[in-house]
Write a structure and sequence with these properties.
mainly alpha, nucleus, elongated, single chain
């Protein structure tokens, strides 16, 4: 719940900054004020509670997340290292493996990275570095390296298995299940994949409902509210929203957090535009709820 509150705080902080910018119409300002009050009530968060602040603001997080992940173009002319380069890259990989056995994971990353510089078309090097990243707690780096390994060799079962481990460590158990299942398709007799799949499925079942931890928000009441449904209908008929939802769904498999952040940025101005038409009545309802 703490992470949820931190995210809510970051969103509220972002909305406050938009208010302070002074570039909004009076209707837009009123809409943002209503949104801030409702978010503070729903998540029991106050902008004054600085303990919930994180190192980066929401725009900074989005800017980092939206940086394009480098991809391996498997359709391009393949890079062909010389025999000497292949031998040197393998030597560096072996050095990295030795550091892994010694639990010197930082040096292992360095050796695998050097091997990748020499031969960037070897999926094993990325997959091994992903394992080292996971040991260091850099699960996002592990996910990225597994993506690159899979891009080079879509039938590399170990890359799917390690992707599942990294995602599970990020509490993305639904996504982890998908990758464990793919790993098992490629290596049906692997007991480790079977065990990890069972654990991820159990964690997925234990995960709270999406409505849990929302400060008692009455979802059924919202859905039965004609004003809310009218606003939702207006939003969903907006081409920007349709494009955003399509993009989020297409990218949700591997990078759900990045897709969510991108969606928030697109959704915010559209929501503000639609809600401004009925901000006064929503403002009154929100204030009555806060006072009660």
């Amino acid at each position: 719940m703490t992470d949820t509150k931190r995210l809510a705080f970051s969103i509220i902080q972002f909305l406050h900054n938009q208010l302070d910018s002074g570039g909004l119409s009076s209707d837009a300002q009123e809409s943002l004020e209503v949104a801030i009050q409702c978010l503070e009530t729903a998540f029991d968060v106050s902008i004054e509670d600085k303990s919930l602040a994180v190192a980066q603001t929401l725009p900074e997080i989005f800017a980092t997340a939206s940086v394009t992940t480098p991809q391996i173009n498997v359709n391009s002319v393949p890079f062909t290292p010389t025999e000497e380069e292949v031998a040197e890259a393998e030597r560096l990989k072996t050095e990295g493996n030795d550091r892994m056995k010694e639990e010197n994971f930082s040096e292992a990353v360095e050796f695998y990275s050097k091997a990748i510089e020499i031969n960037p078309q070897n999926a094993v090097y990325y997959c091994n570095r992903a394992a080292a990243y996971s040991k260091l707690g850099n699960y996002a780096g592990a996910v990225q390296d597994c993506e690159l390994a899979i891009g080079i060799d879509p039938n590399y079962s170990k890359a799917y298995g390690r992707m599942g481990l990294a995602l599970a460590s990020l509490n993305k158990h639904t996504e982890a299940v998908n990758f464990y299942q793919k790993a098992l398709e490629l290596d049906p007799e692997n007991d480790t994949y079977k065990s990890n799949l069972k654990i991820a499925e159990q964690k997925m079942r234990e995960a709270p409902s999406p409505t849990v931890g929302m400060g008692g928000a009455d979802l059924a009441g919202l859905l039965s509210n004609p004003g809310f449904m009218n606003m939702a209908s207006t939003l969903m008929s907006n081409p920007q929203v349709q494009q955003m939802m399509s993009g989020m769904m297409s990218g949700l498999m591997v990078q759900p957090r990045q897709q969510l952040l991108q969606g928030l940025v697109v959704w915010a101005p559209v929501t503000s535009q639609a809600s401004s038409m009925r901000a006064s009545s929503l403002h009154s309802r929100c204030r009555r709820r806060i006072q009660s």
